[in-house]
Amino acid sequence: MNMKYVKHSTIKRFTDQCFDRESEKAARIVKGVLDAQSPRLSDIANAMEGNPEANYKTIQRFIDKHDTKAALHRLHDEDSEIVIGDPTDIERLHAKKTEYVGELKSKKLGFQVLVLSTPYRGRAIPFSFISYSSKTISSQLRSRNMEHIKSIAELQELLEDKILVLDREFSYELLLEEMSEANIRYVIRLNTGNRVTILDEEGNKISLTVSIGQEVHYEGVYYKGKVKVNIAGKWEKGFKEPIWVMGSLKPSELLRVYSLREKIEESFRDLKNLLNLDKVMNKKQDNMEKMVALVLLAYTIGLLIGEQIRDQVYTGRKWKLYSGLFILLKQKLRLAKAAFAQVIERAYLLFCRIVFGSVQTHA
Q1: DSSP structure class, residue 114
Q2: What is the rounded distance in angstroms from the CA atom of residue 39 to the CA atom of residue 45?
Q3: Which of 52, 140, 165, 235 has the fewest CB atoms below 10 angstroms from its CB?
Q4: Alpha-carbon distance values, 69 to 76, 121, 253, 297, 339 (Å)
């Protein structure tokens, strides 16, 4: 199975649910992303049907006219228990003059994308993101932490009673205070490497210790002596160290909820290895973000179709070997026409359920 079996008209059924106008052009571009396995406009234009030069101009005009991030935002799954926030580095080693490229922690040139998503089969369905770098932060007199808070603030209305799950990079006092004031329910992996101070109600320092095979809970303690949190820790057999998480949930719920985000990094791996997201080349940050949104949309459509193929073809151990996107783009499989039609229909209905919370669609 590969993308040649997925027709432009099939992709349009999905893009119809995200774009109120020019969905046909959106479908051509999304299919081009999947066919080219690239975010570069020239690669996509060459992969699309028709004249590459005309295709290139079509992509440019579409990006100029449409808010593709708003289209991606429709993939926010209202039925999901949690929302996951994860950053990833995009290296741009030779983009010294690009306005939004700065220096990463690795000292290489690049920028960061903070993606908000909901879990799906050990991967994630992205629906929002922000991008920033050391250069954009400096020019805007902001900090990385303020960019995080900006993203969370924009998410506040959408969260409602959902739980925000973040990794240890977000384990800092200012963000905890902002989320507490906003009444956002959250779970964050505790960064124990910085030897953070945890105090009990009486102001006594708590030593976070747990034995192999055990789980411990702390309720109503204070992160850095200031922000009230609950903490849970567990050291599973076979692991080199325990995992500690903190948040606003009951201690007994913290580890369960945090486990829902496991393997989300696989989504970034697929985006970079299969769709080459880290090769995005736009000169302006606004256009880069619009292109990233289209790649994330293409990723989601490809993932959902591929996951249905996986259910149709694989069982047992082989079912766990590949991601849906890998199966769609790389595996040489054949499905009968009727079976493939069923695959598309199931993926489409799931896509509509994510967008609308039901199977209703646009006319």
Answers
A1: E
A2: 10
A3: 140
A4: 12, 24, 33, 9, 33
How many CA atoms does the CB half-sphere of 32 hold within 13 Å? 26
Strands 185-189 and 215-223: what pairing? unpaired
Angstrom distance (rounded) from CA 216 to CA 141: 41
Instruction: Compute CA distances 353 → 91, 261, 298, 302, 357, whole Å.
Output: 35, 21, 17, 16, 5
Q: At residue 4, does pLDDT exceed 80? A: no
The two three-digit tokens of residue 301, written as one number? 């459509």
Structure tokens at 309: 């193929």
d(CA 244, CA 260): 15
In this prediction, residue 87 carries a pLDDT of: 87
Q: What pLDDT digit, counting tens, does each position of 44-83 carry?
A: 999 999 999 999 999 999 999 999 999 999 999 988 999 9
Q: Could you tell me where the beta strands, DSSP code E, fall in the chain?
A: 82-91, 102-103, 109-120, 123-132, 163-166, 185-189, 198-199, 215-223, 227-234, 243-247
Q: Can you tell me the distance from the alpha carbon of 229 to that of 219, in angstroms, rounded to the nearest whole number? A: 7
Judge whether 340 and 327 are in contact, CB under 8 Å. no
Residues 6+ apart with CB under 8 A from 20: 362
Contact assessment for residue 252 and residue 232, using Cβ atoms and an 8 Å cutoff = yes
User: Are 155 and 185 in contact, with CB atoms under 8 Å apart?
Assistant: no
User: Whole-angstrom Cα distance, residue 274 to residue 54?
Assistant: 26
Q: Residue 362's pLDDT is what?
A: 40
CA 326 from centroid of its chain's CA atoms: 17
Q: How far is CA 130 from the centre of its chain?
A: 11
Residues 116 and 128 sit within 8 Å (Cβ to Cβ) = yes
What residue ranges do the domains of the chain occupy? 3-72+284-356, 81-259
Name the one residue in this structure whose structure tokens are 């902002």.
178
Choose the CATH number for 81-259 among 3.75.10.10, 3.90.350.10, 3.20.20.30, 3.40.140.100.
Answer: 3.90.350.10
Q: Among all chains, which residue has been given the structure tokens 């820790």?
A: 233
